[in-house]
Amino acid sequence: MNDFKNYAQVQEPYIILVKGVIDTSKETGQVNIASNKTIIGVTPDASIIGWGVYLKGVNNVIIRNLTIKNKVENPKNDAITVEASQNVWIDHCTLSSDMVVAPEREKDKDKVDALLDIIKGSKGITVSWNIFENSWKCTQVGSSDNSKIEAEARVTYHHNIFRNTNSRNPSVRFGTVLCYCI
To answer: What does the chain look like in DSSP terms, one character per residue?
Structure first.
């Protein structure tokens, strides 16, 4: 965990290869990712379990071939948050939570936040070939219904699968969003 965090947060460009499980559930929040990082899962069990990752004000980040599981019950916890960032590619990932979507679980739907939020006018964001599963709230563009910066968002979703989900498949408040699927 410490190596992942150290390399993810330094200012120098890095390619970070993830082997096995990184448990972030003991952290007090999401792991911050700095600009110019490529994070690639290289084993079948490559995953980040717990709080997930946070990209704020960054450029040139790739997250690929990872399972990111949102396990910490916190209404401000996303598997991935992309805020005011540019040139981000999230590809061939599985984003999930323990929130099985069933009528008897609806009362618990706000204990865990969305799987992927793209907010504060993020641009050049591509979300491709991912699986979103086991969540009441999957993915959204925009965090507010009245923020002018949100209108600057530029996002492409393509070839994603939504399985056992309830809402935000995806949800778009503002911005230019291209969404297509197979």
So the answer is: -HHHHHHHHSSS-EEEEE-SEEE-TTSSSPEE--SSEEEEE-STT-EEEES-EEEES-EEEEEES-EEEE-S-BTT--SEEEES-EEEEEES-EEEES----GGGGGGTTSB--SEEEETT-EEEEEES-EEEEEEE-EEE-S-SS-SGGGG-EEEEES-EEEEEEE-SSEESSSEEEEE--
